[in-house]
Design brief:
Distance between the termini: 42 Å
Number of helices: 12
CATH topology of the largest domain: TIM Barrel
Strand content: 15-25%
CATH architecture of the largest domain: Alpha-Beta Barrel
Number of strands: 15
Helix content: 40-55%
């Protein structure tokens, strides 16, 4: 099943990357500054929390200006879901654990049907329906039961423009519940490890959780949840997809972990090369080797477009597998920059 969210398809071969705006949407200028920047860096869909009427008013303005689809994130007050749909939001996310009783859900569904707006039923371990907790002990069983109950409400009203998500802060629970959901439900799945922690911990958890599921053919859109800026969530999401062959990148940097033989500040060189390549459009997909010494440097460089092998005071520059010059270590960045210019579209 494919679900259309403005110009994006959830359920097709392309895996859209999502993030969530981390400031109040009523600050429209800041919100639009972020959304435009994120859209240019690879964000396909952005979710915005709508906790009150003030946020809803900000959402109305942002919807009109945003270059990418907007998802309204709704908790507790079903009327805010209806207001968001009527404002023209591209998709709504509701939580069965707190959106209210069946009568309130029915009113949301009626509005969704009228405007043909897709919905994500977002099941989170941290906010499961109390009545289902009394019936089941296993959190995975509760999450699946919550989805069945909520989907039932939509089917009663004849509406199936649905995306599902099942999230836990535990990697293995996230994997297991999504495996089960993929067997039971025919709807596209939004996947990610929720409340995964800071950039370091969250990257590892999401790489394992999202990567494992995608490798099994499970998952149709992703959000990397991090206690970090939105830009980091997009960068990590793109790298996960690139690492398992679901996205291509214009540039692939190979760098060694360094050891006692390393005589140059390799991490600083990698950082500066990334800065230098950011935003550029190249004439071909580039592979660059940045190696700390001559042990593996020449071998890695032979399979790259160009690269360096660090040495004492001076380093070797390779291009197309051949040594082209020796440069002083202080000149490495400048030399690499000159080579990059050769591959940069003018």
């Amino acid at each position: 099943m494919e679900i259309k969210v403005r110009n994006q398809i959830i359920g097709g071969s392309y895996i859209p990357i999502q993030t969530m705006l981390k400031n109040p949407v009523w600050d429209v200028d800041l919100s639009m500054e972020k959304i435009i920047r994120l859209s240019k860096s690879g964000c396909d869909i952005i979710r915005i929390t709508i906790p009150d009427e003030k946020a809803l008013q900000g959402l109305k303005t942002v919807i009109k200006k945003s270059p990418i689809p907007i998802v309204a994130d709704i908790h507790f007050d079903y009327r805010l879901a209806i207001g968001s749909i009527e404002a023209g939001v591209d998709k709504v996310r509701i939580n069965p654990g707190n959106i209210g009783d069946k009568s309130k859900v029915k009113k949301v569904i009626e509005c969704l049907k009228y405007h043909n707006t897709p919905v994500r039923i977002g099941i989170n371990k941290g906010s499961l329906p109390e009545h289902l907790k009394k019936l089941h002990k296993d959190p995975i069983d509760i999450m699946i039961a919550a989805a069945k109950e909520e989907i039932g409400y939509f089917l009663e009203e004849g509406y199936e423009n649905i995306v599902l998500s099942f999230k836990s802060s535990t990697v293995m629970e996230t994997i297991h519940v999504n495996r089960e959901a993929a067997k039971l439900f025919g709807y596209p799945l939004h996947i990610g490890v929720t409340e995964a922690g800071d950039l370091s911990d969250g990257t590892i958890k999401n790489a394992i959780g999202i990567g494992t599921l995608l490798q099994e053919g499970i998952g149709n859109t992703i959000r990397v949840s991090l206690t970090a800026p939105e830009d980091d969530e997009i960068r990590v999401g793109k790298k996960i997809l690139e690492s398992i062959g679901l996205r291509s990148s214009d540039i692939d940097i190979i760098s060694c972990p360094t050891c006692g033989r390393t005589e140059i500040d390799l991490s600083e060189i990698v950082r500066k090369v990334k800065e230098c390549t950011a935003g550029r459009v190249f004439t071909k997909k580039l592979k660059i080797a940045i190696m700390g010494c001559i042990v593996n440097g020449p071998g890695e460089a032979s399979e790259c477009d160009f690269g360096i092998a660090g040495g004492v005071d001076k380093s070797l520059i390779f291009k197309d597998g051949k040594k082209i010059k020796t440069v002083h270590n202080n000149d490495i960045i400048e030399e690499l920059g000159l080579i990059l210019e050769e591959y940069t579209k003018q």
